[in-house]
Every structure is written in C-alpha cells, then in structure tokens.
C-alpha cells in the first residue's frame, strides 16, 4: 500500500516493464525511490546508496545473479551510476536469463560513456521530473511553485527553503565530485550561479566564462555536465528553410524553480517583474517537457528568435507555437512574434499562455489562462 500522503506520479513505468527493462533517470530528490516503493513495490531492491550493498556488489557483481530466485522477474538497482560496472552483469542477465531490470540514476554521464548499447537497445530510458501540475491536483499553487519549485520533499515540507539550501551543496558533493570535477569545485560553483542568472536567455559562452572566471571551452563542458546530471536542458532554435533571420544560439532552462531561486539566493520574487516573467516562462517550459516525456516520445522543444528581436518562446512539432506572457491582459503587441513566425512557416496552433482570467481569441491567436492551458495540455488537446 502507498504510504500516507504519497502523491501518485503520472509516469507510466509498469507498461514498459512488461516489455523490456527501464532506465529511470531523474535529478536528485525527484522521488525515484519513493515511486518504486509505492507504485512498483518490487521484491528485490539493491540500493547503492547503502554502503554495505555497495561494497558487496563492488566486490562481487555476480551476487545479483546468484541471489536470483526461480520465477523472479524484476530486479531494481537504485542509483546505478554509483557502480557502472554492474551494467555488465545487467547486460548478461537480460540476454541469458531474460531478466527485467528497473535501474535508477541521477546521471547518465558515466553510463553513456561505457554502456551506450544497453541504454539504447535493451533498456528504455525514461525521465522522472519534479511534481507537475496534474499530479498536484488540488494542492497546485503557482505562487508556491514560483518560489519553492516542485521537488517533492521541498513542496511538501513545512520548511521548504531549508530543504532547498541543502540541495545545491548535496548536488555539488554527490554529483559533481563524482564526475571527477572535485579539483574545480569552486569554479563550478561560480559557474552554477552565473548559469542561473542566464536561465532562459540566449547563451553567450564568452560572457558567462568571463563572469565565472573560467575558459569558454570549460563553460561548454560544464553545461554538458548540467544536462547529464539532469539539472537542466538546452533548447535549440528552430531551423526554418529559406530564412536567414533567426539566431543560432541556444537557451538553457533549469529543471526546478526552487533550485534556480536557491542558486540566486532569491527567497521572494515580486509579480510584474522581469524575474517573475522568467520564472513563469520556465514553469510553462517544464510542464511542456514533462508532458512530452510522460505522454509522448520526448519530442524536442524549440524556440524562434530573429536578430531584430521577434521571438516565440516554444515550438513543438514544428508547427505548434506557444508564447508565454506573465501579464494579466494580453493585447495585440504581445502577438507580434507569433504572427511574424506564422509568416515564415505555417503554424497549426498559435497560443499565448498568460495570467488572463478568460479564454479568448485575438485574430488567429488563442489566449489561454495558464490553468486552462495546463488542463488542455495534460488532456492531450494542445499536442
């Protein structure tokens, strides 16, 4: 039985496990272990955060095979990135024994380097995000989300800021030092804060390198580490044939608003400020990304921006364009990017997500209050 106050997660792992093994990735503290305990309820779990279990399997990986009981068809290994060599044993048992594995981890970096074939062919990669709006239901509170984010232990805590303050330290200690970057931990810490200031903005590696006091080539590597440890994701510009107007630089969004605020030591953000607008835009992006990972096949999200400043925040499937405005009253001037993009490439949907109170339409553009947009998104009516 699920533990008291457990919030059901939308991600569907059971159906995948009927067909093949699963590599469940997710940033630290998104609730992977809790999901396994409450929804999968496996008979056998090897938790590599447990020092005894880690030591035993490090010395003798074949213990998993030797302890396998007749008829046992699911084995869970939690935090598999702690012991990548176990993947050889997993590979053998999938091939020779027909075993099914649920592997969890907070970084794909080491696994990708050494076991790409297993990850690509024998285990389906799925990603667990922090809480999304559909999972929170009646507990959904946008003000709370823009302040503290949606990590389960943070959102459900009576003291969320204290939870967040320890998160970055834990991340640096557990993830970054494990990536053999411990000698550069001070440089990486400076980079993290600088990257947070650049959240959702066009990336200028040279400027970020100057602020973080590290070479530009190192900044590219650091962003790669952030992506591999699932702390954020790049959004690339859409390429439109026969058009030379659009920029070529990418954007980067952090995976959680609370972690972003913590990196900036920002306990409060006032509405109707640029900072709040950035948080609101990032939240819409995170909902889109979670929806695509859970309900679709992880389709890419792009953006569009011209050198003259016309912009559309998000484009999905090349023809669904979504602009995000934190205003409570969208008007014609907010539509310029959507209309300009539509003149470059035909769009099937043009949507502005805002804090308006009513659904309406201006010209060909739908104006959706964020609550309506979220409902339609998770009901499959947007994508």
Task: Describe the secondary-structure layout.
Layout: H1 14-17, E1 21-25, H2 32-40, E2 44-47, H3 51-59, H4 63-66, E3 75-78, H5 86-97, E4 101-105, H6 109-114, H7 116-122, E5 123-127, H8 133-136, H9 142-148, H10 152-155, H11 160-176, H12 185-197, H13 205-212, H14 216-228, E6 232-237, E7 251-254, H15 257-263, H16 274-295, E8 301-305, E9 311-316, E10 320-324, H17 336-344, E11 349-354, E12 360-362, E13 365-369, H18 370-378
Parallel strand pairs: 1-4, 1-5, 2-3, 3-4, 6-8, 10-11, 11-13
Antiparallel strand pairs: 6-7, 8-9, 9-10, 12-13
Helix pairs in contact: 9-15, 11-15, 12-13, 13-14, 16-18
Task: Write a structural description.
- This protein is an alpha/beta fold and 383 residues long.
- The protein has 2 domains: 14-127, P-loop containing nucleotide triphosphate hydrolases (Rossmann fold, 3-Layer(aba) Sandwich), CATH 3.40.50.300; 133-378, no CATH class.
- The chain has 18 helices and 13 strands.
- Strand 10 (320-324), helix 17 (336-344) and strand 11 form a beta-alpha-beta unit.
- Helix 9 crosses helix 15 (257-263), helix 11 (160-176) packs across helix 15 and helix 16 (274-295) runs parallel beside helix 18 (370-378).
- The longest helix has 22 residues, at 274-295.
- The protein is globular.
- The mean pLDDT is 90.
